[in-house]
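re the bet — no i am not wrong, look at it urself. input seq straight from the record:
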Amino acid sequence: MEFGWPVMLWALAAPPLLLWGYVRLLRRSAKRETALADAHLLGVLWSRPPAVRRHVPVAFYLGAVTFLTFAMARPIAAIPLPVNRAALIIAIDVSKSMIGEDIQPNRLKATQTAALELLRAMPGSAKVGLVVFSDYAQVLVPPTTEREILRESIAGLKVLQSTGVGSAIVESLRVLPGRRELLGERLNIQRDPQQPALPFAPPPAAPGPDPGPVDLPPAAIVIFSDGVSNLGVNPTLAISLAVDGKVKVYGVGVGTTNGSVMTVDNQLVLVPFDPTLLQQMAQATGGQYFEISKSEELRKVYRQLGRSIGWERRRTEVTSFLAGAAGIFMLVGALFSMMWFRRVP
């Protein structure tokens, strides 16, 4: 905690001095009682209130003075505040392997259910977008606070062909707030000539001064996938872009270790599952990897993600909070005093 007017902290000497004065008054009062009558006669003359009743109101008053002293120093603290700049991208693999039935009823259906649960866990102020990827990545729903269109889009997903995890990350970064401009300024993307140009790739520019740190809103990508990327943008490049954009990638593996054996065109086909790439992405970007089969663990992650995405720690002056606490302490002390003594000390 910092203080905008630290010189006022000298006033913290007031509560101990007031406490010392209160103790002195109690001792003087005890001496007057002794002078009035013998100790064994005091109980006959009048009844002394319990110690708790005598001291609790004073304790609240001293607490109020302490809070007011801190408030005068104008404290500044980093406190969590709700933000409406946060954004989350749900990226779902719709490659043909997602018809595997090692996760019931199948991988895609299980992913749709998990994605809807993630959507429910996100705070209403956070923007959520939807990206699907197979042969290429496509933004179905840009980041928005409207949940109904997201639910409808997730429910209507269909499988296609290949898996392009790298393309999914690049397309997600393109629509996250602040990342498109940042990538356009800082990165000269190198790509395979056979690949199509990335939608946000800027023309080469002359090197300039470092723009310095950028205040980027909180953002994350949750990728549901079952395998190795075999098409599109190189995953290594995609990971570096996510790191530069300060975007954490959370991988959710959809499948089981042994994979799934299915009949396709009258032939038995092994539908494998390999979470290695998802694990590497999560580790490199500061995210986490989880398996969709561990539903309870996944729910905890959703709640944690909702708190980290929907809330942001900001340096804020908390003088009003301390002043309010002082007022409450003063009021409570006065109420106790009035209830027990019918007067305010």
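see?? The two ends are 34 Å apart (CA to CA). told u. also The chain has eleven helices and eleven strands. so pay up
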